[in-house]
Amino acid sequence: MVTVSEVAKNKIIELRQKDGLADEYAIRVGVQGGGCSGLMYDLQFDATQQPTDHVVEDKGIKILVDRKSLLYLAGTELDFSDGLNGKGFQFKNPNASRTCGCGESFAV
C-alpha cells in the first residue's frame, strides 16, 4: 500500500486546483527503469483507472499504482518538502536498498 503524508495531501490538492483538474483526478505513482540508481519514480495526475491498477485511498487522495510498480512501492509514503535541502515530492520507500543524492531514483 502507498500512503501520503498530510503535507503531500495538501500539496496534491493545491496542484490539482492550480491545474484546473477535477477532484476525480487521482495520483498515479509508478516506477520506471532509469536514473543513476536504476529505477525512477513517476508521479502524475490521472483520471483513468486501468483494470490492473491497485487502487487505494489515503487521507481523501485516490492513488493508482500499476501491478509491476506495486512490487517496488509497497509500504511507501509520499511526502512533500519545501525546505532548504530540497523542494518537491519525496518517496519514503522501505524497499529501496539505496537512493541517489537527489532522491529521484533508487535500487532494490
Automatic annotation (TrEMBL):
Pfam families with a match to the protein in the record: Fe-S_biosyn (PF01521)
Superkingdom of origin: Bacteria
PROSITE patterns documented for this protein: HESB
GO MF, one annotated term: protein-macromolecule adaptor activity
GO biological process terms on file: iron-sulfur cluster assembly
Domain Core span(s) in chain numbering: 2-104
Cross-referenced InterPro entries: ATAP, ATAP_core_dom, FeS_cluster_insertion_CS, HesB-like_dom_sf, IscA_plant_cyanobact
Protein name: Iron-sulfur cluster assembly accessory protein
